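Pasting two entries for a bug report.
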Amino acid sequence: HVLFVVRGAAHEMSEPDIALVTVTYNNPLELSRTIRSVRAQTRLPRFWAVVDSSNSEFQLQNRQMATEAGARYIWTPPRGIYPAMLQGIAELPSRYFVWFLNATDRFVGPRSFEETVSEVESRWGQAPDTVWFQAGVVATSGSELERTFLPTSASNFIQSLLEGRVGMPHPASIIRSDVVRRSGLFATDIHVSADYALAIYLFYRHGLP
């Protein structure tokens, strides 16, 4: 479900290319679950990178899982999640949109990627720089699954973001890779505030939707 689109300049290409970037750190079990979620999709991305900052004891296992799944494996020193995400973006042509599906993240179903690409294509005439979707949080409570979908509306998300109560939900955000690079925010030392700063940058650049 699309919450809203942040519009940018007109696109040169006739249709969107959406790449997946998966960042992982010392967690091969969660990486394997994310990889299975991607491999189960009815449509696969043209480009998928697994950016690994794990210790040496996990690197070989992570590399094998990534390459067997058809992803490009990239190891980068552990400098934090945003430098790792930026390393994944560095591998992309500027025309690509990037979708961060990090280890511990999952697609909600086998048609998630296919349906998301269709949603972005249907809004191509709006020249999007960013498309924000609803993010689902699934937690287990005993034998029960609890599903919460946040935010509930575009206005709720924007208000919460501007008040500093939420950040930018990575698995629900699809952004032009060149926009992230030009912002320079993932290369700064503001750490966990980088995605929040990127969302504010997008609103400042284009105005509220």
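Entry 2 (this is the one that rendered wrong in the viewer):
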Amino acid sequence: QTQEGMNLLREEFLENPNDWQIQYHTGFAWRIIGDMEKSIFSYKRAIQLCPPGEPAGHMNYYGLGIVYQLIGDFDNSIDNLRKAYQLDNTSVKVLNSLGLTYKKKGNLEKAIEVYNHACQILMNNIMQELQSEGYEPTYQAPDDAKAAIVNMEIFNLVPGKLKEDILYATLQNNIAVCYAMLGQDEEARKAFREAIAFTPDGITYDAPL
């Protein structure tokens, strides 16, 4: 199937040689096949062709960062993942990969910092989603026009939203692994308990991710 996909991408490339998305998908395909050199070339070509301001443009740097991580070039991986995050500072997936790269590099404290930041971004994304659905974080006090009352309803919805997806549990699990590697057992236990509590029902995964 992968080879069939490559053949289709080649046909698309011949018809649209300056289409950055074709180069992006080609980079991904070469990564799956295991030819990292060609994958890097395709992702770099996608970056060159991608127009400024393209909403999905960060994925080119994200893909390139993953390839560099897989071949052990952690500095280039970090550089490209940071660029991806600069283009989309709501991407928890990019931050999770950046944290993993720091972990693989041996900088466990920085990995924990990035993972924790990813958790905060995830919660911010959920809050924005709830607000788009009509929930407000505060409301005006009826007897004081200048006072604002915290709307606990929206905050009470956040834990349920976090448990709808494996991502938060994954981040907490990765934090726990880093703490365990640092010998900080109590912090590791706290994070592992958080990961277990927020793992969606019926989902299992191999850790760390």
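Dev reply: Rendering is fixed now. As a check, the viewer should reflect this: The radius of gyration is 21 Å.
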